[in-house]
Amino acid sequence: MKPAHTLQKLTGPQSWAELPWGEYYREALERQLQPWWPKLFGFHLLKLGNLSASLATDKCAISHQVNAGLEGENLQVIADAYQLPFAAKSVDACLLAHTLSYADDPHRMLREVDRVLIDDGWLVISSFNPFSLLGLGKLVPGLRRRQPYVSRMFTQMRLLDWLSLLNYEVLYQSRFHVLPWQRKGGKFLCAHLPALGCMSVIVARKRTLPLTPTPMKLGARKPSLSRAVGATKSYRKLP
Hints:
By secondary structure, this protein is α/β, with parallel strands linked by helices. The chain has helices spanning 22-33, 50-53, 106-116, 133-136, 156-165, 187-192; strands at 44-48, 64-69, 77-78, 91-97, 117-128, 168-176, 199-206. Helices cover 20% and strands 21% of the residues.
């Protein structure tokens, strides 16, 4: 397994249109997240990265939404994802739409997002699935330097492991859109072979208490009094 941190500097696309079949990916991701937007609540939604900013989140219950990134047209805040200009525990939800796929240090980015999220805050992550038809393109030498094959494709299990270390509770996980060149990604294949989906999405919440608390010992005995040595009752025969 390759380390998460890399010295290679990756440049993410400015929009979904810059990716081959990018609009299909965007539509598929929006369909997956549509049932979840009304469930998110709070005051501030942070959409980190250009692809996050391009997603339709008008159905989200959080009205104040901020698009942040290094450069782009739809950004309200120009900021480095590793040094967000927000106070600790000031953001109610954060959207990382393929943001980790173009990060040279995804661990550091997740820790920074965790810093600004409130307790029980929402975290939505999407990425490309390496075990898919799209992932096979990374094995072709001529495609490795093209979009989206140049991006880093982490397995869903690896992302879940990172979230577990940060004490996040995963509420939803899915892989979808099996055929990248079709608008619906192959409806039949998506229904029967979702593990081969080109895209992966995770919805999680930040928890402050351990997800697996140590069970308390029930019915603990009260400490019993032991007899002192030599304090046994003795009887003396009467003469």
